[in-house]
Amino acid sequence: MLRNAGNVFLFCLANRVLPLDLIDRKSLEIREADEEVYTTLEDIADALPENTPRYVVLSHPVTLKSGRFSTPYVLLYYMPENSNNELRMLYAGAKELMRNTAEVGKVMEVQDEDGVIAIRDALVDA
């Protein structure tokens, strides 16, 4: 599990996703939010709060338009439009740290549940 100063991590290996983590606003450390295991993008979308930013690190298997199988490693930067400014600044400031620490190939920004679910199509088109 990554422990630095971001927000929510979600590790998805093949079709399995490990627990969400969240930022402790006092210590600026990441801790587990729950022990739930997520297996689909829909489950991830349902688990994300409506007004709090999160980071989601996942590796989701897709079949590319060329027919080739791929499992890209990406950071979802979940930033709902109705997040308060303090949290927006906290998450924005740690985005590059999260990207570098997680060593992801791509950062994809989403603002709502539909955006999380649409990631599957964005990964196929990438």
TrEMBL record:
Residues covered by the ADF-H domain: 1-126
Coiled-coil blocks: none
Classification via Gene3D superfamilies: Severin (3.40.20.10)
GO biological process per UniProt: actin filament debranching; negative regulation of Arp2/3 complex-mediated actin nucleation
Entries under SUPFAM superfamilies matching the protein: Actin depolymerizing proteins
Species per Swiss-Prot/TrEMBL record: Arthrobotrys oligospora (strain ATCC 24927 / CBS 115.81 / DSM 1491)
Superkingdom of source: Eukaryota
Matches recorded under InterPro entries: ADF-H, ADF-H/Gelsolin-like_dom_sf, GMF
Pfam families on file: Cofilin_ADF
CC per GO annotation: actin cortical patch
Record's protein name: ADF-H domain-containing protein
Gene Ontology MF terms in the entry: actin binding; Arp2/3 complex binding
Family from the record: Belongs to the actin-binding proteins ADF family. GMF subfamily.
